[in-house]
Amino acid sequence: MSSRAKFATANPLIDALMKRDATGRPLAYDITHLVTRLPMPQTSGIEKVDLAFARHFSQSACDVLVHYGHLKPKSFKPEALADLLRYAPVKSPRAGYAHVYSWLTGTPPSDEPPHSKPTTPIESGYWSRRLARLRWQMTPANTSLPKDAIYLNVAQHAFEFSQYFSWLKNRPDVFPVFLVHDL
Fold first, then answer.
1. SS3 content of the chain, % helix, strand, coil (to 5)
2. Fewer beta carbons below 10 Å: N end or C end of the chain?
3. What does the pLDDT profile of the chain (183 residues) look like in tens digits?
């Protein structure tokens, strides 16, 4: 049984997004918050949620990665998500996080989610994570946002700056989905 078949939540919209084939629309996952927070040694609650989605999408159900900029977003091929996760600063999540991660991915809970340990010692260092962030921010797009995509923004990063989302006015075919935390 695939991880898509096992996945289920109490929210039909999230179920449809995580099982992209249920909607028939391409999925564009926003990585801006994860990239911005790469140099940080500790994670916030929102980052843990964002990382759980990123880990899920690194294995299935994502068509394109989005990193927004001042005029328009940059789009990357989904294979690049594995590189981003190598620098993620999550270490040994609490039991509650492991439970939520397990629930999101449909996998048995464990002490350490996949991709949480750096593959080499330098990848866990502050400067290597800072350089990784700079590389992500400076790298030009290598694909485009597909027509009729669902744009998923999990982390509510920089919502107060409308210029980062003005591109959506020019793309009425894109269906934006924003998760808002801590109201």
1. 40, 10, 45
2. C
3. 333 334 455 556 566 555 555 668 899 999 988 888 877 766 777 887 888 888 888 877 789 999 887 677 899 898 888 888 887 765 545 556 677 777 777 777 665 544 444 444 435 677 787 888 888 888 888 888 999 999 999 887 787 888 888 889 999 999 998 888 776
* Inter-residue contact 74 to 159 (CB < 8 Å): no
Q: What's the whole-model pTM score?
A: 0.72
β partners of residue 75: 66, 143
* β-pair type (64-67, 150-153): unpaired
- Neighbouring CB atoms inside 10 A of 122's CB total 11
Taking only Cα atoms into account, the Rg of the chain, rounded to an integer number of angstroms, comes to 16
How far apart CA 113 and CA 143 sit, in angstroms, is: 29
